[in-house]
Design goal:
The protein has about 270 residues and is α/β, with parallel strands linked by helices. It is built from ten helices and eight strands. A four-stranded parallel β-sheet has the order 2-1-3-4, with helices on both faces. The longest helix has 17 residues. It is elongated and about 70 Å long.
Length: about 270
């Protein structure tokens, strides 16, 4: 059996933004260790004139082709050319849509970029993003009652990226830092609507992340306690005790991706408005 190549070309052709293909392609490529995908993304391909140079490029750098193209003529053109070039290609949404149709009955309406339509859900997500950016790192605590989720935790427990991910899911998310011996905003004591969750991690993990932060953006920083494992352990103990006293659930993010942390938060249950 041939050994896997160190890299391969991954061509992603979309009549929309290409976000779906990027997600699928990276998820699949991650299953193959020892190889690296060289991504070529071709978004907003909606005509033969746009598609032809893309196919010529693929011919010069053959690899795997994934595509989401609604237009049947363009889709057939991709399939035919890939067969001529003897390279694999997959219409990513076709098997999914076929499954939906077999269950739901009516044929799917072929709409380019349908997942990005400006509907109520889209505007809800935009509102959540705006709220989250305005309430990052303890800003505007008086508005906490308007949040769906509030994340609390010591520095470097992924509060901000998790908040932004949840906002992209449509949840207004605020985050508030826990600082040793500094009281949290009093409004958290009386907040009834938001789900309040504490994020924690191991002292080793936080120390590692903080060291990278210091080296990358805080040159000349001399606060040794910031990266000291013993000091961090005290911070974590303080944060855990605080959450326990208020009956706030905690989630250890040490070995979780942002997506996994968000899923664990949502599994706790968010109150509907």
């Amino acid at each position: 059996m041939d050994r896997p190549k160190n890299y391969f070309h991954l061509h992603l052709i979309s009549d929309s933004t290409g976000e779906t293909l990027i997600t699928v392609g990276r998820a699949a490529a991650a299953q193959f260790t020892g190889t690296r995908a060289l991504e070529h993304v071709y978004p907003l391909i909606r005509s033969i004139k746009q598609l032809e140079p893309v196919l010529d490029t693929i011919d010069g750098a053959p690899g795997i082709v994934l595509y989401t193209v609604v237009d049947t003529e363009l889709s057939q053109m991709i399939s035919d050319r890939c067969r001529e070039m003897n390279i694999p290609c997959v219409s990513v949404l076709d098997p999914v849509i076929s499954t939906f149709q077999s269950y739901l009955g009516p044929r799917a309406e072929h709409r380019v970029g349908a997942q990005h339509s400006l509907n109520a859900e889209y505007f809800r997500r935009m509102e959540a993003l705006n709220f989250t950016m305005e309430h990052d790192d303890g800003q505007l605590p008086a508005d906490i009652e308007e949040a769906d989720i509030v994340l609390v935790g010591i520095s470097r427990t992924s509060k901000t990226p998790t908040s932004i991910y949840l906002a992209n899911r449509g949840y207004k998310t605020a985050n508030i830092p826990i600082v040793f011996n500094v009281p949290l905003p009093a409004v958290l004591e009386t907040a009834e609507h938001p789900l309040i969750v504490g994020l924690v991690a191991t002292a080793d993990r936080i120390s590692q992340v903080r060291k990278n932060r210091v080296l990358g953006t805080m040159q000349g920083y001399t606060g040794d306690d910031y990266v000291d494992r013993v000091a961090i352990a005290e911070e974590l103990k303080y944060a855990r005790n605080l959450c326990e006293r208020h009956n706030w659930p905690t989630i250890d993010v040490s070995r979780r991706s942002i997506e996994e942390t968000a899923a664990a938060i949502l599994a706790l249950g968010v109150k509907a408005r």
